[in-house]
Structure formats: structure tokens, C-alpha cells
Amino acid sequence: MWPTATRWAENVAGDDIAVRRARRLHVLTTPSAERSAIGRGAEKGKHMTPPNGTTTFDHPVALTAGAPATVEEVRERVRAQGIEFLFAQFVDMHGKPSAKLVPATHLDGLFTAGAGFAGFAAGDIGQRPSDPDLEAIADPRTFTPLPWRPDVARLACDIHVQGEEWPYCPRTILRRQLDRARALGFEFKIGIELEYFLVRRNEDGTIEVADRLDTLSQPCYDMRALTRSLDFVTAVARNLNALGWTNYATDHEDANGQFEQNFDFDDALVTCDRAIFFRYMVESMAQERGLIATFMPKPFSHLTGNGCHFHMSLWRDGENVFEADPADDPRGLGLSPTAYRFVAGLKEHAKAYIAVTAPTVTSYKRLVIGSRSGSAWAPVYISYGYNNRTQMLRIPGPGRIEDRTVDGSCNPYLGAAAVLAAGLDGMERELDPGDPTTELNLHELAEDERERLGIELLPGNLLDATRELERDDVIRAALGTCAREDYVDYFVRVKRQEFAEAHEQITQWELDRYLQLY
Fold first, then answer.
1. In a 10 Å sphere around its CB, with 0-12 CB exposed, 13-18 middle and 19+ buried, how is residue 108 labelled?
2. Closest to 250 in 3D by CA, of 282, 208, 276
3. Residue 31 belongs to what domain range?
4. Which of 328, 358, 370, 495 meets the CB 3.0–4.6 Å disulfide criterion with 363?
5. Is the dihedral of CA 272, 278, 279, 284 positive or negative?
6. Is 129 exposed, middle or buried (0-12, 13-18, 19+ CB in 10 A)?
């Protein structure tokens, strides 16, 4: 039996809220045998110094010890690293980080009562003005010092309301899907490729690429443009390594002013926590320099958009169950039968889950074929193949599946929950993904050939994607049921309002096209 979701209300009816909070603190302060090894990238004893000359960490050695697992270990990190303040941070539907700044002297309360918020004011997280306050309960494993402000740290939080888990909390939604995978014996791991633009805002409100010399029609990997931005990108890289996340590459991407800085893959929850912090860190560092770092899917109509590709694998007992020797794989991609069923599930549900992985009006302006450089590097068809970037699902090597639908506006918690549910459904039903289309350049595929091959189109806009999402029972179950509605219905309602607001705008293109034509 494959459970579709774990219960959101785990507490016994009638439990006193204070008793539940005390129980939670007891669990969090009990040492665990497991440690999340995130310290692989930092050099022991080496101080990292950002461009403003302040020391990144007074005690960088502590960062290589792995993530704290208990409240007591967080207390020790706070003391040893001289942390004075902590952000109690959570995200709404859109992945926007909200936080309160709490003095370190009040650390313990973040793991019991939590930080209180008027939820309706914080964004789309299922609250009405009449609802009780949100309680942001910190997860000690997410303790993350700010490398550019070494006296401040971040703690990612799960939302509770009156002592109960709040089912509209994106981080909670992902945790439940990961619990489902663990019940089946699997650990879901992902790596995320977060692309961003560095831009500046002009006095007239328009934006332009921050580097005015970055004008090549094919700027991808341009060493000179990367060199002109070295001060910024190396500061980001140093911070990633000081955190122990291991920055293994930085490159100038396909669009002018666009960059990608990669860090190691990990457990899906760990990676999503890091993705939220990475976006916040890059945006903050850019703002301190008078610039804007944006992960918006398509800030310039003529340039390639920002992807946030997920690289996925399932593990059991320390082994990647997606991996196979290509010689033993009849399709030659280095995937196991389990992985192919996972691929089939992704294909089966792609039309629906893309509303979550590409969740904005602008997302679908990225999912096109052409751009100034010659390719948008984004999928428009439901397909898979080996190391072919025109595919929706690219198999870059044995044991790994890359989903290229995901863009920079995706809430990583919701996106990871949706794709995991889709893949597990393919495994449960033993679906067959069909043959890969490795040899095809799908961006040059004629319509009649596409139809002959049975290759389906992805939705062309957010409205169509929400229509697919609301009738997909697998993704509906994965995102969970709330007190008033299914989360999918809430998500669809918010996104359709977003689409309607955009649809009502009269654009300059429309004026130029139609004003004197009719």
C-alpha cells in the first residue's frame, strides 16, 4: 500500500498545547546518532573575507562539524561563533522568506513557543485576518550563520497554529512527502541549479544588465564578462564554501548579466532550505552593492530565462537506486528499472505539476524555443533523453534525472514535493516512459513529426497549467488537505488571480500593434 500523504495533525485530541511544546523541546534536545555532513567545502581554520573587509567567521572550524541536530548543539554554535541575533524564517506559497529577528538570549523560545506572526500579513500561507497567529517553530538542523554578517544566523521554521502543524506551510508539505518516501525505504536527494541576473534599475523604472559591457549575442561562459564580475561571484562562492555547501563551479550563463553558482546535492529538505537561503543571500549581497539580483524566470523578453533545474535521485541504504551500468541498461542511459518508472511518472504528471515548478505568468515566456543566443534552453515538450538540453527530462549521466521545467520562481519545497509524488506514482503503477528521444533536436521538430512520435506539449500558460493541476489526483493528494480545502484548490485560486491581474494589463506591444491598426 502506497500512502498518498502523511497526516498533518499528529497530536492526540485534547493534548494541552504547553504539553505538546514541552514534548517537542524534549525531542529536539535529545542527541541524535545521525549528523548531516555539510562541512565538506570549507577549509579548516581559514578565515573567509568578503570585499567589505569584515571577517566572514570568527570560528570557521565549527562549520565543518556538520549541521547541529539538537537545541543544545545550536546553543553551543551560538556561543562559540558569537551569534547575537537569529532570523526565525519561513516561506509562503511563493517562496518569499519572512522572518523576525530574535536576540540570541531568547533562543530557546524559538524551539518551543516559536516566533509569532500575523499570518495574513505575511503573504499567501492560508491565513485570513481573523485567524490565530502563526507560530514559526525553528528546526535546529537549519542553523545557518550569515557569512557577510557573522553575528547573525538563520533558522528555517515549520509553521504551527495553536500547537498544530499548519498544512499550508510549504516546508511541512515537503516533509510529509519525504516521510512517505522514507516509509517506502527511499531517501530523495536533489541538487538545484539556481540561475540569476545582476541588473540595475534606471531612474525611469526600467532595468538593464548591471555590466554595461556584457553585450555579446552569445555570452555563455564568456571569461571576460565573468572576470568583470569576479568581486561579486567570488564573494558568493566564498560564502558558500564557508557554510560548507561546496561551491564546485561558477559560470556566466547564456544571457547577458546571468550567472549560475552550483553547490553540492543533498537530502531534498536540506537542499530546499539551502535554496531559500541562497536566493536571500545573493539578493542581499547585490542590494548592498546597489544592484538587484533577480531569479525571475524571464526579466528580459529577448534573453534566455532563469532556470532552477532539479537533479534528482532516490537512495536506499547509501546506494543510488536510480543508477545502473549503461551496459546493463537496454536503453543505454545508465538508469535502473526503478528510475525509468520514476521518469514515466514525471511524464505522466508533467502537465499538472508544471503549475508548481513554473508557477508564474512569466514562467511560460521562458518555456519557448528561441532567444537572442539561438536557444532558450527550456523545454516545450514532454520528453526525456540522454544529455540533450532540448528535452524536458535530461539524463546527464547514470543514476540522475534532471527536470528542466523548474524555474527561478519555483517554491523549492512545493516543487520537490510535486515531482517526488509524480515519480513515486510512476513506480507504484510500474509505468513505462517509452523510448528516449535522445537523437532529436526538439526545438527543430516539425509538428507532423511530433504527432507521429506521440510527443505531447507542455501547457503554454499558467492558466492552462492550473487547469491540469486541479484535476490531477496524485499531485492533489501530495500537496495535502487543509481544514477548509485541498491545498491544490488554494494554490489554483491564488495563481488564477495572478493570471487574471496580468491578463488585464494593456502592454506596450498591444498599443504598438493595435492602436492605429483598428
1. middle
2. 282
3. 17-169
4. 358
5. positive
6. exposed
Q: 57 lies in a domain?
A: yes
Amino acid, single-letter form, for residue 402: E
Q: Is residue 200 situated within a structural domain?
A: no
Grid cell 538570549 is found at 105
What distance in Å separates the CA atoms of residue 479 and residue 418, rounded to the nearest whole number? 7
Domain for residue 156, yes or no?
yes
Q: Which of 122, 130, 137, 98 is nearest to 17 (CA)?
A: 137
3-state secondary structure of 98: strand
Q: What are the tens digits of pLDDT across the range 374-416?
A: 677 899 999 999 989 999 999 999 999 999 999 999 999 999 9
3-state secondary structure 268-315: HHHHHHHHHHHHHHHHHHHHHCCCEEECCCCCCCCCCCCEEEEEEEEE
Measured between alpha carbons, how far is 26 from 18 in angstroms, rounded to an integer?
A: 12
- Cβ-proximal residues to 96 (8 Å cutoff; 6+ apart), any chain: 123
**DSSP calls for 451-477:** HHHTPPBPPSSHHHHHHHHHT-HHHHH
pLDDT digits 0-9 by tens, 40-71? 333 333 333 333 334 343 333 334 457 899 99
Instruction: Give the residue-averaged pLDDT of 206-232.
Output: 96
- The reported pLDDT for the residue numbered 23 is 42
- Across 426-441, b (16+ Cβ under 10 Å) vs e yields bbeeebebeebbbebe
Residue 407: what are its φ and ψ, rounded to 5°? -120, 180
Amino acid identity of residue 230, one-letter, is L
List the grid coordinates of 497: 488571480
What is the residue-wise DSSP string for 329-393? -TTSSSB-HHHHHHHHHHHHHHHHHHHHHS-STTHHHHSSS--TTS------B--EEES-TTSSE
Closest to 294 (Cα-Cα) out of 338, 251, 259, 263? 259
Question: If we measure between CA atoms, which residue out of 291, 285, 292 comes closest to residue 148?
Answer: 285
Position 146 in a domain: yes
Number of domains in the chain: 1
Using alpha carbons only, how large is the chain's radius of gyration in Å?
A: 23
Q: Mean pLDDT of all residues in the chain?
A: 88
CATH number of the structural domain spanning residue 94 = 3.10.20.70
